[in-house]
Specification:
It is built from five helices and eight strands, in the order αβββαββββαβαα. With about 170 residues, the protein is an alpha+beta fold. The chain folds into two domains: about 70 residues, 2-Layer Sandwich (Double Stranded RNA Binding Domain), CATH 3.30.160; about 80 residues, Ribosomal Protein S5, domain 2, CATH 3.30.230.10. The strands form two sheets. It has a four-stranded antiparallel β-sheet with strand order 1-2-3-4. Strands 5-6-8-7 form a four-stranded mixed β-sheet.
């Protein structure tokens, strides 16, 4: 069990967005909160969580727990991503573009938080169409999940060249 606690201590957690939701009921208004949290080890692994509760702290805790469950790894090329990609979710599109060393993270709030906890240090991004934090985070996650490693791309290119030689 102590190994899990050490693992969890190394994870970096960022709250991206907290939304207050109001529901009109017979006795007045009922407030509840939703939170989006990203968790990462700053070494190529990141997860996203969404939690809802009557209190902010509880919503963040739920989102954090979900983020730890939904972690996935990202193929990295030193401090950046291996290639350009566009992530889509709903109306949101997020352009993720590799950058030269020393560029830094050129990104808006939600995408910046994801890149920081994932350990990406040099990247260019642009949110297209929608700026809804929930959809932007999911679009970014989808883009990062669809990244192919440099080795995969080189193998695919070599196979294509070999196929052309055989014709």
């Amino acid at each position: 069990m102590p190994e899990v606690n050490q693992e969890e201590r190394q994870l970096k957690e960022k709250v991206i967005f907290i939304n207050r939701v109001t529901k009109a009921v017979k006795g007045g208004r009922q407030f509840s909160f939703s939170a989006i949290v990203v968790v990462g080890d700053e070494n190529g692994s990141v997860g996203r969580g969404y939690g809802k509760a009557k209190e902010v702290a509880e919503a963040i805790r739920k989102a954090s727990t979900e983020a730890k469950r939904n972690m996935f790894s990202i193929p990295m090329d030193r401090n950046t991503i291996p290639h350009q990609i566009i992530g889509n979710y709903g109306a949101a599109k997020v352009l993720l573009k590799p950058a030269k060393e020393g560029t830094g993270i050129i990104a808006g709030g939600a995408v910046r938080a994801i890149c920081e906890v994932a350990g990406i240090k040099d990247i260019l991004t642009k949110c297209l169409n929608s700026t809804n934090p929930v959809n932007v985070v999911r679009a970014c996650e989808q883009g990062l999940k669809n990244l192919k490693s440099k080795d995969y791309r080189q193998a695919k290119k070599a196979a294509k060249e070999k196929e052309n030689e055989n014709k």
